[in-house]
Automatic annotation (TrEMBL):
PANTHER family: ADENYLYLSULFATE REDUCTASE, BETA SUBUNIT (PTHR43687), FERREDOXIN III (PTHR43687:SF1). The keyword 4Fe-4S applies. One of its GO terms (molecular function) is 4 iron, 4 sulfur cluster binding. It comes from Methanimicrococcus hongohii. Pfam families: Fer4_21. Gene3D superfamilies: 3.30.70.20. The keyword Zinc does not apply. Residues 1-30, 31-57 form the 4Fe-4S ferredoxin-type domain. This is Ion-translocating oxidoreductase complex subunit B. Coiled coil: none annotated. Keywords: 4Fe-4S, Iron, Iron-sulfur, Metal-binding.
Length: 57
């Protein structure tokens, strides 16, 4: 079921995108982090790195 990103909380810092080992995260057209559930391996790295706790797994 991959990760869920709270679009209201995401600041677009990009830390989660840098941290993702499977390149499942990217910015959408509005500069908010978005996940490709087909690529996410549910490692939790993005959850740990997000400074505003916008990602849950
Ligand atoms: S849980 Fe892991 S694989 Fe999935 S989006 Fe986050 S960092 Fe990437
Ligand atoms: S680390 Fe958190 S605030 Fe930064 S881009 Fe990812 S979801 Fe948004």
């Amino acid at each position: 079921m991959a990760v869920v990103i709270d679009r209201d909380e995401c600041t677009g810092c990009g830390l989660c995108i840098d941290e993702c080992p499977s390149e499942a995260l990217s910015f959408d057209a509005e500069g908010i982090s978005t996940v490709d559930p087909d690529l996410c391996v549910e490692c939790g790295a993005c959850v740990d790195v997000c400074p505003v706790v916008a990602i849950t797994l």
